[in-house]
Specification:
Layout: H1 2-18, H2 23-28, H3 30-48, H4 54-57, H5 63-70, H6 73-78, E1 83-84, H7 90-95, H8 101-109, E2 116-120, E3 126-131, H9 134-137, E4 138-140, E5 148-149, E6 151-153, H10 162-166, H11 174-181, E7 187-188, H12 192-195, E8 201-202, H13 223-234, E9 241-243, E10 248-250, H14 261-270, H15 283-296, H16 317-320, H17 358-368, H18 375-387
Parallel strand pairs: 1-5
Antiparallel strand pairs: 2-3, 4-6, 7-8, 9-10
């Protein structure tokens, strides 16, 4: 039966992916065992660790009240929140009234909501709620229903309405809520809580990072810099972060962030960029487009990482025709060349999402860089970008 075969494939996949390294293998390859253990720790941190940010989201922002009393499951899905079907007990969920707020609370009790961790008392009341890295940097494959499926760690949640969710919190003024509601889905402004300005950025993928030195649009630091910045200043976790360049100094004890950065980075480095589905692009055109790319784009998108930032290069906004508003709010005032990975699955493009499609990306650079490309060459270049 098809259902049986699917179940067998899922079970076999879990056995392969989740099987622990045998004792003899650990003795024979100790470095591999340590690496695998660090990655497993990092996966748990990435998916489930709040770094103690309940201190903000519960005690200050009252997110647990908004979610537990106002947000029904269908509304949560409409806001781009994802459900991990591998943690979902469907019978309990249905019995709890899936169309009411009790359904939302049941999903949280099962720890099935990607990126949210809740604590309940003995009477079933939600007492604490925090967020994890996975809220923004994981999605699901919609295997059961839209928004409900198996986890896809490292994929940006392009459906997430972060601004609209934040706008429901009582800590913001009406003026701030109006700004937050204007943020497109899949975007977030990581400086808004410091300067009140709004230039929301596209959530970047957290996969394919193993050879990427700086995982920020403005290359202010390596991946652990950004993990610490987000965990402490945006997730509001309990920890330490310091960057005199942008005037930020946060010290909190105990530090629940810094000791976890190594494992978190190890897991993120282990998440490979997903391969492009073969049917989603024209292979012959992509082969022609590779030559167009080499002649016109490879000066900045260099080597295997497809970014010259690994060599320390940054670009003024005017050089690439980018809006300068966000760069002006950072220490670097310039943008890095973005590594190109799994472009087929995380439109829109550029830091601000101003290019809706890969065709828009190509047209932008044809105009800004005065590239002399025929219509056919533009088409072939788009097909090649789809293949990356």
């Amino acid at each position: 039966m098809p259902g049986s075969r699917s179940a067998i494939r899922i079970i076999a996949g879990l056995l392969v992916v989740g099987a622990p390294l045998g004792a003899s293998a650990c003795r024979q390859f100790p470095d591999v065992a340590v690496k695998n253990d660090l990655e497993r720790q990092g996966r748990e941190i990435f998916r489930y660790d709040t770094f103690g940010d309940e201190q903000f989201w519960t005690d200050t922002a009252r997110l647990h009240e908004v979610v537990g009393q106002q947000i029904r499951p269908l509304e949560a899905l409409g806001l781009g929140v994802k459900v991990d079907m591998d943690r979902l007990n469907l019978l309990k969920f249905v019995a709890s009234n899936p169309f009411g707020t009790s359904g939302t609370r049941q999903l949280l009790r099962q720890n099935a909501v990607v990126g949210l961790r809740a604590t309940f008392d003995e009477q079933g009341n939600m007492t604490r709620l925090g967020i994890t890295c996975a809220l923004c940097h994981s999605t699901v494959d919609n295997a059961l229903l839209p928004g409900i499926g198996h986890r896809l760690d490292g994929w940006p949640n392009t459906d997430l309405e972060i601004g609209k969710i934040l706008a429901k919190l009582p800590i913001f003024t009406d003026a701030q809520r109006a700004v937050l509601r204007s943020w497109p889905s899949g975007t977030y402004d990581p400086r808004f809580n410091f300067d009140g300005k709004s230039t929301p950025l596209v959530l970047p993928p957290a996969h394919g990072l193993a050879q990427v030195k700086n995982e920020t649009y403005t290359a202010e630091g390596p991946i652990s810099y950004w993990n610490a910045y987000v965990a402490v200043t945006q997730m509001h976790g309990r920890g330490n972060f310091s960057d005199p360049r942008i005037g930020i100094e946060v010290r909190q004890e105990p530090d629940l962030v810094t000791p976890k950065l190594e494992a978190l980075r190890a897991y993120q480095h282990a998440i490979a960029a997903p391969p492009t589905p073969g049917a989603s692009y024209d292979r012959a055109a992509a082969r022609r487009g590779q030559a167009v790319f080499a002649a016109n784009c490879a000066r900045c998108h260099v080597d295997g990482t497809l970014t010259d930032n690994n060599d320390g290069t940054l670009h003024a906004p005017s050089e690439t025709g980018m809006d300068s508003a966000y760069a002006a709010r950072t220490s670097q005032k310039r943008y890095r060349t973005t590594p190109l990975r799994a472009l087929w699955q995380h439109a829109p493009y550029f830091h601000d999402g101003s290019a809706r499609t890969l065709s828009d990306v190509v047209d932008h650079y044809v105009r800004v860089r005065n590239l002399e490309l025929t219509g056919g060459q533009r088409h072939d270049l788009v097909e090649y970008l789809k293949s990356l």
